[in-house]
Amino acid sequence: MKKILIALVLCFVSFHTMAQSGYEITINLKNCNDSLAYLTYYRFDKTLIKDTCTTIKNGKIVFKGKEKLDKGIYSLVSQQKAILFDFFIDDDTQKLELSTELGVNITKELKAINSKRENDFFSYLNYIAQQNKDFLDLKQKTVVKNKKDTLALVEKQNEFERRIMDYEEDFINRNKGSLIADVLNLKTEKVLKNVPKASNGRPDSLMVYNYYKTHYWDNVDFKDDAIMRNPFFSNKLNKYFDKVVVKHPDSICVEIDRLMAKTVQGSLLYKLMLAHFTYTYETSKIMSFDKVFVHISDKYFKTGKANGIYDNEEVVQKIIKRADKLKPLLVGATAQDLFMIKAEDFSKMKAMGFENAKNSEEMTKVFYANVNEVNKLWVKLSDVKADYTILVFWDVDCGHCQKEIPKLLDAYNELLKEKVNVKVFSVYMQHEGEKYLKYIAEHKLPWINVYDGAHYNNSIEKYDVYSTPVIYILDKNKVIKAKRIDADKVTTIIKAIETETKK
């Protein structure tokens, strides 16, 4: 008898375990004529397919799997790849039954048969949709004739927004500790409600900003990967770095480290965030933001903290190599020296045999055979005496250079008229000396016109010249103050540096 009881208990436990494992999402969708549907989910900045139902009968859609679904926001997607509606999945909704009808009332009629909290969420969505509709209807009916009417409409909008904010706050408080409360917390703005007055009598904007930034990530659990499986997390992260954090590379580095420290190293959220930051600042077009990319490489990739982010280890090595190349070129770094040859000495270099060398071995032989003479011809970047040195890499045959070089000449002449002590270190990236000399003469370039006559510098690698023209601005100590700028920005930037220096 005892053995039978034990067997019954084990059987019950086994059955209970099987009943709780896996997922089964049943959706009764009236008026649905599709033959297939998709179950998708949000993950950071992407929407991914989790399951496909290919056996829709009378609008009944079933998604079923042996393993539990990850917690997050999921979507029913039609055969035409359109999102029909969203719902959430947590530990309590792995077996979920939903019903609605296809058409304009799809969200209004949406119901969960076996989850009160899911229905509360649908009620929330309908409330927000209705508030937005009511305001748009009001806006269309309102005739704005003057400033008073405009202000009245703005106040009405503020009323709607306050109503929504209060509703969301109440919803989150009532569902505290649940997945859906955590998700909606990402969507809500943490604003200072009772704004004090500053000394000028106006609302204290600095206090508003400090409160907003300090509380921006309140109640966001970076240790739970579920926090990124919704349409809000990625946008909130981007907004934080685009509009909240001070637009300075040092500030951004601090904030990246602060947020990364909140995650679990090696978790999916950790990997996706780090990959996002790496790509964002490697490809940033904002000058000096490559410093953030270099910081990420040094702190995470070189130390092994980026292991597992990319399947291919070569990608990691490429990132490190790229960052190492950029590090000496960061704004604030001292420019690497260049040993160049004057354009007018092209004939001397040609006579030594540099233009006839067919490979690096022959070039090396020519160099050492003439090293004493070459040493007399060097023109070093570090020897240029000026408050500002404009370092430009370009090519006579480059179409973009043909537009930019005349603009740079105009900027140079304007700066000279304003008594700015500036020189241009003009580096021709090819070795067709006659062509270079002809261009200099025709366009009257009064610069330090040089080229890598001894093939000594490898400027492409040293200064990251993967296209031309490339313009750097250096101060009197050859510290990089600006880089990769357009020629028509040169005057403005140098004047700005002058103004800042005089403060």
Feature tags:
4-stranded mixed β-sheet, 17 helices, alpha+beta, 15 strands, disordered N terminus, 7-stranded mixed β-sheet, single chain, 46% helix, 503 residues
Roughly what is the average pLDDT, rounded to an integer? Answer: 91
Beginning-to-end CA distance, first to last residue = 94 Å
- Based on CA inertia axes, which overall geometry fits? elongated
- Radius of gyration from the alpha-carbon trace, in angstroms: 32 Å
* % residues in beta strands: 15-25%
Please report the number of helical segments: 17
Number of strands: 15
Order of strands in the sheet with the most strands? Answer: 10-9-13-12-11-14-15
What would you call the quaternary organization? Answer: single chain
Q: Helicity level, as a percent range? A: 40-55%
Decide which structural class fits the backbone. alpha+beta
How would you sum up the major sheet?
A: 7 strands, mixed
Unreliably modeled segments? 1-19
General description of the model:
With about 500 residues, this protein is α+β, with helices and mostly antiparallel strands. It has 17 helices and 15 strands. It has helices at about 1-20, 115-140, 145-175, 180-185, 205-215, 235-245, 250-260, 270-280, 290-300, 315-325, 345-350, 360-370, 370-375, 400-415, 435-445, 460, 490-500, and strands at about 25-30, 35-45, 45-55, 60-65, 70-75, 85-90, 95-100, 110, 340, 380, 390-395, 420-430, 450, 470-475, 480-485. The strands form three sheets. The protein has a seven-stranded mixed beta sheet with strand order 10-9-13-12-11-14-15. It has a four-stranded mixed beta sheet with strand order 4-1-7-8. The protein is elongated and about 90 Å long. Residues about 1-20 have low confidence and may be disordered.
